[in-house]
Amino acid sequence: MIKIAKDIGVTRVDNLRGGKKSVNIKHLIWGDELKDKAKMISKITLPKGASIGYHDHTDDFEVYYILSGVGIVDDNGNITKVSKGDVIYTCDGATHSIENTGENNLEFIAIVINE
Which residues contact 34 (CB under 8 A, 6 or more apart)? Predict the structure, then answer.
């Protein structure tokens, strides 16, 4: 399967998981396409000041790969600055949030994999 970039839609979500402002999600591969092995592989864009709120993972885990921008991640209560090339791994039973603290968009790939 090949998906042409112009054909992949972007969904705007307000206050994702209780976060600040709106985020844009481009679902690259998701739902039935992943045959119950994972929930989604998406590119997420957080504009300046936007965030995904603090949330937990149960029966799955999530990986973020930062493509551009800067931000902070709350990883089970540990606050860490992140930027291009960093990887955040949130295992089953763990919690996290991410916020754009820079002047430009914070963009990353998010992968949620079933446990």
Answer: 40, 41
Q: DSSP characters for 26-79?
A: EEEEEGGGGTTSEEEEEEEEE-TT-EEEEEE-SSEEEEEEEEE-EEEEEETTEE
d(CA 53, CA 89): 16
* Cα–Cα distance measured from residue 103 to residue 27, given in angstroms and rounded to the nearest whole number: 24
Q: Which amino acid is at 45?
A: T
Kindly list the domain boundaries of the chain, sorted by start residue: 5-114
Helices and strands, counts by H and E, the chain: 0, 10
Mean pLDDT rounded to a whole number for the chain: 96
What is the pLDDT averaged over residues 93-107? 97
**Is 0.90 surpassed by the pTM of this model?**
yes
How do residues 66-92 score in pLDDT, each as one tens digit?
A: 999 999 999 999 999 999 999 999 999
Architecture of the 5-114 domain: Sandwich (2.60)
